Each structure stands twice: as structure tokens, then as C-alpha cells.
UniProtKB/TrEMBL annotation:
GO terms under biological process: DNA-templated transcription initiation
Stretches of the chain forming a coiled coil according to its record: none
Protein name per its UniProtKB record: RNA polymerase sigma factor SigL
Organism: Blautia wexlerae
Molecular function GO terms recorded: DNA binding; sigma factor activity
Residue ranges annotated for the RNA polymerase sigma factor 70 region 4 type domain, each copy included: 81-130
UniProt-listed InterPro entries: RNA_pol_sigma-70_dom, RNA_pol_sigma70_r4_t2, RNA_pol_sigma_r3/r4-like, WH-like_DNA-bd_sf
Matching Gene3D superfamilies: Winged helix-like DNA-binding domain superfamily/Winged helix DNA-binding domain
Highest taxon above the source species: Bacteria
Alphabetized Pfam families for the sequence: Sigma70_r4_2
Length: 146
């Protein structure tokens, strides 16, 4: 009798071991299937191109970091403090030409028609304004880095 009870225990243990091994094999197959799916459908951030990466990202913009220049015609948001200060130093006519040219994207001819000026005058205003902006920004920049 003792032999059969020992035989039954051994048989039950073998059956249990077999079931455990089958369960682990099934888990292994499921895990490998999951890894294969992830490999086909997921991409690491380091493998993305810069354009793809920037499509997925966002940049917070805070109004405290922006400067608003406004008058009767324009309401412009400028992110660079140095540029905003430099634009403030321009005369109204020069500001108008810069705003129309760079913020509205108008050509010199279109600006001339709008402001009743000669196109060469608009070009001259724009050129001198850019020179003034450059000089002013260099001065402000130099003062800020002392």
C-alpha cells in the first residue's frame, strides 16, 4: 500500500511540474509576442529624427517672458527683450515700416502704396531701421553683460 501512495505522490508532483512548465512556456510565448509587437509599433525617442521629435513635443510660452508693442495699427508680441527695447527706440515711421515689412510680410512696394511713399524711401527706412536696431541691440547687449 505504501508503494502506491508514494507512486501517487510522485505522479501528482510530476503532473504539477508539467503544468507549471506549460504555464511558464505560455507566459514566455505571450511575453515574446508582446516584445515583438512593441518592436514593430514603438520607436525610441533617440531614434526619432529632429522633425519627428518636435512634432511630439510642446513648448510652454508665458506672457511674462514676452513683450508687447502696440499702437493704433499694430499689436505685436516679441519674445526677445533686447529686440523689444531696440524697436521702442525707433521713430514711428521707422517702426511702421519694420512692422509692415517683417511682422505683416508686406513688400516694399505694398508698404509704399499703403503709406503714400516712394518705394526707394521705404527701402531706405527699412535699411536704416535695421542698422539702428543692430546698433541699439549691441549697446543694450553690451550694457547687460558688464
Amino acid at each position: 500500500m505504501e508503494q502506491s501512495s508514494s507512486y501517487n505522490k510522485e505522479t501528482i508532483q510530476h503532473q504539477f511540474d508539467r503544468k507549471c512548465k506549460l504555464a511558464l512556456q505560455g507566459e514566455k510565448i505571450d511575453y515574446e509576442r508582446h516584445l515583438s509587437y512593441r518592436q514593430k509599433h514603438e520607436i525610441l525617442f533617440c531614434e526619432l529624427s529632429k522633425t519627428e521629435f518636435w512634432k511630439l513635443s510642446t513648448v510652454d510660452e508665458y506672457t511674462a517672458e514676452s513683450y508687447f508693442l502696440a499702437d493704433e495699427q499694430f499689436d505685436v508680441k516679441i519674445k526677445n527683450e533686447l529686440l523689444a527695447k531696440a524697436i521702442e527706440t525707433l521713430t514711428e515711421r521707422k517702426k511702421e515700416v519694420i512692422f509692415l515689412s517683417y511682422f505683416q510680410g508686406m513688400s516694399d512696394a505694398a508698404i509704399a502704396r499703403k503709406l503714400n511713399l516712394v518705394r526707394s524711401t521705404v527701402c531706405e527706412h527699412r535699411t536704416r531701421s535695421l542698422e539702428l536696431l543692430k546698433n541699439t541691440m549691441e549697446e543694450y547687449g553690451y550694457e547687460n553683460y558688464r
